[in-house]
Amino acid sequence: MSTQDYSDIQHATEPQPQDAGEAQAGAEGSAELSIEGLQAQLATLAAAYESAREQSLRAQADAQNARRRAEQDVEKAHKFGLEKMVNDLLPVVDNLERALASIDPANESLSAIVEGIQLTHKSFVDALARHQVAVVNPEGEPFDPNLHQAVSAVPNPDVEPNTVLNCFQKGYTLYGRLVRPAMVVVSKAP
């Protein structure tokens, strides 16, 4: 190949020079297009990041709430799992109290029986108290519909209306939650 042929080939493969104004405008247009495109991509990516971040925070909050609810459910199951058993045992306490009320304390021959029933009753009530079962005996207190069940209302001018005059059956709470309301007689205005 001759030198002439070589220079022709080289000239054909070289980019042809353009007008200086056209070359500068083309470079600026592509630079603007690239910057605008990059800014649009950046905005899209920033929005996607924020969306993913919010979803992640929500998922973490949901997981934490579920964990807290599960812990509360377990705690309630531990606390109030005894509620059915307590309900079954309360009539035994009531019967011991009725037995003590029906025995004549003046009869000396029954003193050993009275003492045995009193000790049994005391140990039973103490065992309930160890398991956070509290007695609700509201005689003389204001009527509370959350803890008491009124079986009758009696006019009494000596006390304020809605005062508990008599308690037929004691109530009980387990960890502050009502297991059985106290059955009471309430005063009313004459």
TrEMBL record:
Keywords associated with the record: Chaperone, Coiled coil, Cytoplasm, Stress response
InterPro entries: GrpE (IPR000740), GrpE_CC (IPR013805), GrpE_head (IPR009012)
SUPFAM superfamilies according to UniProt: Coiled-coil domain of nucleotide exchange factor GrpE (SSF58014), Head domain of nucleotide exchange factor GrpE (SSF51064)
Coiled-coil segments: 35-69
Function in brief: Participates actively in the response to hyperosmotic and heat shock by preventing the aggregation of stress-denatured proteins, in association with DnaK and GrpE. It is the nucleotide exchange factor for DnaK and may function as a thermosensor. Unfolded proteins bind initially to DnaJ; upon interaction with the DnaJ-bound protein, DnaK hydrolyzes its bound ATP, resulting in the formation of a stable complex. GrpE releases ADP from DnaK; ATP binding to DnaK triggers the release of the substrate protein, thus completing the reaction cycle.
PANTHER family for the chain: GRPE PROTEIN (PTHR21237), GRPE PROTEIN HOMOLOG, MITOCHONDRIAL (PTHR21237:SF23)
Record-stated family: Belongs to the GrpE family.
Quaternary assembly: Homodimer.
The protein's name: Protein GrpE
Natural source organism: Cellvibrio fontiphilus
Gene transcribed to yield this protein: grpE
